[in-house]
Write a structure and sequence with these properties.
Length: about 450
């Protein structure tokens, strides 16, 4: 009897482990597939450190594009790798739920004095309640595994969106630093010309003071831009999972978004159908429903059954069976059932609140994208040309000595501000586009044009 019991138990355990491993692999494959469809890149678990560093080196060797930055983040971001570990935790819980309760062996030996023989008693108890509890326990943990997988896909989306925005911010600041440095050099050159003119009586002390002030302001602006650039690079390194030892060179460029934002109703329908957080919330209903079923089966939670053996002092051997039951007299599990029912109702009602929040997020992101598009167009098509013409006129008349330096410095400052506004507008446009993709649940059908090296 003992041999048969151990063999049967080993077969059940091994079957459960194989089944759980298959479910674990399936969950990870679903995460990879969903992420690739939504983001355009596949996440990967961290490999052996040497292999991981080799992959990082290959990606960084010839400069990092925007898509390569996302690929690297999905492979190396520390927070995302921690999120992947949630799948392992859920897998372990599922594997545990599929295991039968360990049998209990009770052994008693009495050794009385005198001529009486010893008395032995032994009981081997198997959990009979596993017959009706094992299935519901597995269903609960399987539902939780699906819920965790949806959350992990959401973490992938969030990491990809943050990486795209951080990459674009670094590109913007590279251009801003270059522009500010060029402006500072130009202003310093003009300051020298003002001093030269002053020596010949063609400039006033007011112009000298204004030129000196412009040089100082341009130097401060350049220092601020460089500091902001270092902060942006530190954020990008964190998202990519890199240290200061890694040399990162960005070879992308800022390009405009499509001519018009996508249809708002299409974005809303897409988000409601496929947002990972909504999928996780819907999986939460399944978790709560299975948990309620488990509680309904748990009234008779502790029922054990098995063989018993006794050896009496007179030398007789007795065999029998033992049935051990916890009687649900004081605790009939009704309170836990009510709790599970309330949690199911809560999960069902939270779906409506979550869907309303998704609608709001999509509408907000869409409006921000539409506004960013209008702003970028206005700055590029109207403000920049006007500031450029004003600067060219001021430069021409200053060289002809028909205007003093104050007008030229003012025109230069306004042109620099317009160029800065345009770069910021382009960044806002791309950031709004990334946020709309995130709000809609993944990469949109109409995407940004690819960033080309050297543009």
């Amino acid at each position: 009897m003992k041999v048969w019991s151990h063999l049967a138990l080993a077969l059940v355990v091994s079957t459960a482990i194989v089944a759980d491993t298959a479910l674990a692999n399936k969950a990870w494959e679903e995460v990879v597939s969903e992420s690739e469809a939504r983001v355009g890149s596949m996440p990967a678990r961290a490999l052996d450190p040497a292999v991981q560093q080799a992959i990082i080196g290959d990606l960084l060797a010839d400069g990092l594009t925007r898509d390569e930055a996302v690929e690297l983040a999905l492979r190396n971001n520390n927070r995302l790798q921690a999120a992947f570990a949630k799948l392992g935790i859920a897998d372990a819980d599922l594997a545990q739920a599929g295991l039968h309760t360990n049998p209990t062996l009770d052994f008693l030996a009495r050794f009385p004095g005198g001529e009486s023989g010893s008395e032995l008693e032994a009981e081997l108890l198997f959990s009979l309640s596993d017959l009706w509890l094992l299935g519901p326990r597995q269903e609960v943990e399987q539902a939780r595994l699906q819920q965790v997988a949806a959350h992990v896909v959401g973490d992938v989306l969030n990491t990809a969106a943050d990486t795209r925005m951080a990459y674009d911010r670094c590109l913007v600041l590279e251009s801003l630093v270059a522009q500010t440095a060029e402006t500072a050099a130009t202003v310093e050159k003009w300051r020298d010309q003002v001093y030269a003119r002053y020596e010949h009586g063609y400039s006033s002390e007011l112009e000298l003071s204004m030129a000196d002030a412009e040089v100082v302001e341009s130097e401060v602006d350049l220092a601020e831009m460089k500091a902001e650039q270092q902060v942006a690079r530190a954020r990008l390194r964190r998202l990519l999972g890199l240290t200061d030892e890694h040399k990162v060179s960005l070879i992308g460029s800022l390009t405009d978004a499509p001519s018009a934002p996508p249809d708002l109703h299409d974005m809303t329908r897409r988000a409601l159908a496929g947002r990972p957080d909504l999928q996780a919330a819907r999986a939460g209903i399944w978790v709560a429903d299975r948990a309620l079923l488990l509680e309904r089966h748990s009234r008779w939670e502790h029922v054990s059954f098995g063989p018993a053996y006794a050896h009496e002092p007179e030398g007789k051997d007795l065999w029998g069976i033992v049935l051990e039951v916890d009687l649900p007299i004081f605790d009939s599990n009704r309170a836990q059932q009510r709790r599970a029912a309330a949690e199911l109702e809560q999960a069902e009602r939270q779906i409506g609140a979550a869907e309303a929040m998704v609608r709001e997020q999509v509408a907000t992101a869409w409006e921000e994208l539409a506004l960013a598009h209008r702003r970028e167009s206005a700055v590029r098509e109207e403000l920049l040309p006007a500031r450029q013409r004003a600067f060219e006129h001021a430069q021409k008349y200053w060289r002809e000595m028909q205007l003093n330096m104050l007008y030229l410095l003012e025109a230069q400052r306004e042109l620099s501000d317009a160029r800065r506004q345009h770069l910021e507008a382009v960044y806002d446009l791309r950031r709004a586009w990334a946020e709309l993709e995130f709000a809609a649940g993944g990469k949109l059908a109409v995407t940004l044009p690819p960033a080309e090296a050297g543009d």
